[in-house]
Design goal:
The chain contains six helices and two strands; from the N terminus they run H-H-H-E-E-H-H-H. A hairpin with a 5-residue loop joins strand 1 and strand 2. Helix 2 packs across helix 3. The chain is elongated. The protein starts with 8 loop residues before the first helix and ends with a helix.
């Protein structure tokens, strides 16, 4: 297992496919990826192997000589870890800086602002 367990952008795309459809063969993963991106089969295979080396995928024998792959961690767990790392590295662990940056650079609609206010009210009640 390698030291860096953080999935790359391309590896995250593979995880997304697996979270929605697991278990899958590399061929199936490649079919989904190649529908939206120009990527070779061997590239997909290498990315799956890297995810396996990072301990983010598990494999089991599949039909014939193939293997079936599945994500070791849930989508929610992985997204939480990636988000926490992002907040730590990009915003110095300041959630308020993150929120201010997101709201300042975006153009939230009135409906979105209403949802944000309602969310903040729920947090206040906790």
């Amino acid at each position: 297992m390698t030291k860096n367990r953080k999935p790359s952008e391309a590896e995250t795309a593979i995880l997304q496919i697996l979270w929605e459809r697991q278990p899958c063969t590399v061929k199936t993963i490649h079919e989904y990826i190649s529908a939206t991106k120009d990527v070779g089969y061997t590239t997909t295979l290498k990315q799956v192997q890297r995810l396996l080396d990072k301990g983010l995928l598990a494999r089991e024998p599949g039909p014939g000589k193939s293997y079936m792959y599945r994500a070791v961690n849930s989508a929610e767990d992985t997204k939480t870890k990636l988000f926490d790392r992002f907040v730590e590295t990009a915003f110095g662990n300041s959630v308020s800086d993150l929120v201010m940056h997101a709201l300042g650079n975006g153009d939230p609609s009135e409906e979105e602002l209403k949802e944000i206010r309602a969310f903040l009210e729920r947090l206040d009640k906790k």
